[in-house]
Amino acid sequence: MRATVIHGPDDIRIEEVPDPVVRHPTDAVVRVVNACICGSDLWAYRGVAARTAGQRIGHEFLGVVEAVGAEVHGFRPGDFVVAPFVWSDGTCDFCREGLHTSCPQGGFWGEVGSDGGQGEAVRVPFADGTLVQLPKDAAGEEKLLPGLLALSDVMSTGHHAAVTAGVRPGATVAVVGDGAVGLCGVLAARRIGADRIIALGRHEDRTAIARAFGATDVVAERGDAAVAAVRELTGGKGAHAVLEAVGTEESMRTAISIARDGGAVGYVGVPHGGSAGVAIGEMFDRNVSLRGGVAPARAYIPELLPDVLSGAIDPGLVFDRTVDLDGVPGGYHAMHTREALKVRIAF
Amino acid sequence: MRATVIHGPDDIRIEEVPDPVVRHPTDAVVRVVNACICGSDLWAYRGVAARTAGQRIGHEFLGVVEAVGAEVHGFRPGDFVVAPFVWSDGTCDFCREGLHTSCPQGGFWGEVGSDGGQGEAVRVPFADGTLVQLPKDAAGEEKLLPGLLALSDVMSTGHHAAVTAGVRPGATVAVVGDGAVGLCGVLAARRIGADRIIALGRHEDRTAIARAFGATDVVAERGDAAVAAVRELTGGKGAHAVLEAVGTEESMRTAISIARDGGAVGYVGVPHGGSAGVAIGEMFDRNVSLRGGVAPARAYIPELLPDVLSGAIDPGLVFDRTVDLDGVPGGYHAMHTREALKVRIAF
Lengths: 347, 347
Prior knowledge:
Two copies of one chain form a homodimer. The first copy, chain A, is α/β, with parallel strands linked by helices.
């Protein structure tokens, strides 16, 4: 089969790779229908995050089960499924507690020795613990696919930011970052019932999506000016819940500064740089909490799925370009240069 | 009257100062019965925290109301009261939400222009919002006074660490720091119903109190060895809730490392140094939360008071030395050299 392979910075190739097969009795093989490129893939593309030359890449996909091992009981060939961005055994303490990302047997698609999501098929370890069943007829509804695909990572990650930031009905929320995750954070906050949602972002095409997702205010400033703008919008107090969806020291500093005393920052931007942006003295004086981390998408998909199927939310709007497999290298480039917000891959 | 005054590092004096009087109609004047020296006062004593020469010091006290302003309705002369370590108006949004430490009209005893707790009397701003009524007959029960005095700061602060770390019945808890606050954190965790409480500390006289307060295990190691010891005690997983009661970069690093994936660190040690101990990448991968800050003691005292009065908890055991006002400079020295854990001042 053919799959996306990374050979180094700015060197994404589509190559012939071995067809995945059931290796362990808990494996399934999934034929990919849709995959996509993540903002976090760009860290590898830019050479900021190290990758082994020839490593597979991509961690978001949905598709059709092609084969299952003898110990897979929840899925059979022909099932339509979505995969969270990490696999997990579904049986350990952490999986049972809903923190599948800490499963000791878990792993990340594309890590050395595993298949990546941006290929024609994927071997899925611990299929019963990992995959989530989708309605079979949804596979034929082209309009639904982007939203379902978003559950794999961005929508679940935005939801994690909202949950860990403590978004509640009636809350005032601020979202730092206008990438696909930040936008999904806006949507998640709206879905939970936030009253006011302030989106921080300066790309008008993106803040337009933020408004469509429920943002009531947009702040285009950055740094101190952004802090001042959010304070002004909130009567000087700041936001009860701040969703941090960037991962830089500056964005973390901004997120903490715009949180209301006693509020929380839910951070889901993969931290790049150190902890210098974590203003611990300010957090202490104002009792601002820092929560979040890698999102246990597997725990959230069953909760979010009905709202995608019903059309109550459509996180698929974050995809503004669709390519085929051969278009993937160009898709990386388009996201890198910000020509595209998020690229979907249709097989 | 006479009060404790700080003139510089290692220069604590007892001096004649003006008698406090009701200046605003919401003021009360409290004649101090008991006060104490806080571990955080030592930062000023050691010159690490800056103070203006001649500034008053001390922020924990209980006493008898001597005079009240015309707008004080909840207290009258003769009432026995305890003061939280900050004053607050009791009417703002933050006070009503229980975050009295963020009251815009609030302040800290001993800040420039205010009375400190380590003196014969204190002018209390916003008496109705600040003071908590104690049973009058408790004033005569010498054995109760240390426990009631501890509500002013250390017990409320230990409780804040436990609450923000998410201690629940049945939880496994670790407490970093064997000072008075850490010990009160052990007591607070036990009171909430933690199943296992691991106290990190290497001073045997202090860990003995930790055991009396409910610690089930004591870890004397520090740094990496402490992390390994806690991991071994918890089946490799770490503690659901970690109470950080030191405030150094090393203690923060240890606290984060011994938290279970998905768990939380409740930090109440005043941060000294920067945020280098906040291992943001590790926190992200393992979804470890960082919560806490300056404790809203005023919110907690009403909840904790009945348990002190009934004898269900006795946080007063953290006091291992009692001095009179003239003994205060010696008390600072004794705490600085760790001859004393926490010094009570009886007037």
